[in-house]
Design brief:
This protein has two domains: 244 residues, Spore Coat Polysaccharide Biosynthesis Protein SpsA, Chain A; 215 residues, Four Helix Bundle (Hemerythrin (Met), subunit A) (Up-down Bundle). The protein contains 17 helices and 13 strands. The longest helix is centred in the C-terminal third of the chain and has 29 residues. The chain is elongated. By secondary structure, the protein is α/β, with parallel strands linked by helices.
Length: 485
Amino acid sequence: MNESLVQKRIGIRGLVTAVLFPSVDLLGDSITVRPGEVDPLASVVGISLFQRAVLTLQRGGIRQLIVLTGPEEEHLKQALSSGPRVSIPVRWMPIREFPLDDPRTWEFLGAEVGDCVLLLSANAIFSPHLIEHLRRESRHGKAIVVARPLSRSSTMGNRGSVKSGVRLQVCGKRLTAWAPPPGDHTAPLAAAMVVLPAALLTSASRDGGMELGRLPIRRWLELVGGDGNVRVVEATDKQGLWYQEVTVPSDLPLAERKLFHSLRADAEGFVDRYFNRKLSRWFTRLFLRAGWSPNVITVVASLIGFTAAVGFSIGTYAAGVVAALLFQLAAVIDCCDGEVARLTFAESPFGAWLDLFLDNLVHMAIFTGIAIGLYTVRMGEPGAWGWLALGGVTVLGNGLSFLLVEQARKIKAANRWKTAAGAAWADFMLKNVASRDFSLMLLLFAILAKLDWFLSCAAVGSLLFAAVMAWVIRPSAVTPPNGPV
C-alpha cells in the first residue's frame, strides 16, 4: 500500500481522492495534537477508528487516499495491513516532510488530486452514503462543509462542542459565516470533513492564506464563504448520511450505538426489524468479542435450525414448542452474520449466497420435520400420508421460490429490469415477503397446537409466492433474440 497514486492528474474527474488526518484537528487553529483525544487506533466494534475511516471511504467510492501522518505512521500501517482488505492505493506523507503550514505541501496536494479533494479527520465514524452524497454534490465545483446535527450535550455546551467551538451560520444551504463559540447555540456544528476544489489549495496559499503553526483550512473557508461559494451538507440519520465525532473517551459508546442503529438488511420484515434485531445485537457483540466470522455464524444458526427440524419430527406438543423456540433462536442468530459482516467490512458474494442457501435449506427441513411429525402422530389413520404429500408440496414451493429470488437478485445486480414496475414489485416481495417473519408465526401455531394449520398455510403461501415472483421477473428474465443479456 506504499505505492504511488495510480492516477496523477490525467483522467481524475470529480471527487475521487481523500486526504486523511489521523491526529490533527482539521478545523482547529493549531496543527499540534490536543491532549486527551481518542487515539485513531482506538477500537470501535472490532475495528480501529483509522481502519474504519479508510474502509468507509473505499466503500463510498473514493479511489485513492493520502494519509498525512505524524510519528504514529508505522502503527497505522500495521493496523491497515492486518484488517479487512484495502483495495484503493494509499500514499503516506509524513508531516515532518510535508509541514501543514508550508504552502508547498498544499500546492503539491492540489497538483495530485484532480478536480477536488475530500479532507477529513480519522476521529469520527460516518456513513458510506455520506461520502457518496459528497461525491455527487462536488460536481457543482464549490467547497463543501459537512454540518453535524446538534446533540443534547452540544446544546448544553459540554464535552466536544466547547472543545471545538466551530459553529456554522447557514442560509439556504450556503455558509455565510463562522459563528464564534459563545454565539448562536442553535447553529449546526461543523464536522471535520470538507471538500475543497484543487485550485483553492494552490491559490489560497499564494494569496496569504497561510500562517506559521496554523492549519489553513478553516481560514480558506472563511475567505471564500462570504461570497456564498461554500455549500453546507447536513449529516442526518434519516437520510442515512450520519456522522458521529469520536474525540473523547465518552464518545466511544455513542459511536458503537450509532453503528448498531445503522444496521439494516435489504430484505427485512416487521419481526426482524422490531424483534429479532433487538435481540441479535446482544449476540452480535458476543460474536465480535469471540472473533467469529460471518460464515461461521451462518453455519451455527443453520445447525440450530436443523435441530429444530428434528424436534418438529417427533410430533409431540412439547417437542413442537421447544422446536419452535429453537427456530426463533436460529432466526435471531441468523441476523448476526449480516450485522458482523457490515460492521467489520467482511461482506462477500459467497457469504451472501451461503446465507440465502442455508436459510432456505433450513426452511425446507422445518417443513419436512413438521410433515413427518404430523404423519407420526396420525399414523394408521386414513389419509395420514397426505401430510407427507403436503410437506413435499411446501418444500417444492420453497425451492422454486429460492430459485426465483436468486434470479431476481441477478437481474437487479445486472440492472436488467425492463420495467420500473417489475423492479418495484421485486423489491416489495423481497423486503416484505421473503423474510424471517414466519418464525414468530410458527411459534404461535406451535403454542396453539395448530402446526397442521401452519403447514397448510405454508404450502399455499410458498406456491403463491413462487407464482407471483415468476410473473414479476418473467419479462426481465427472457433472453433477447440477439443473445444473452
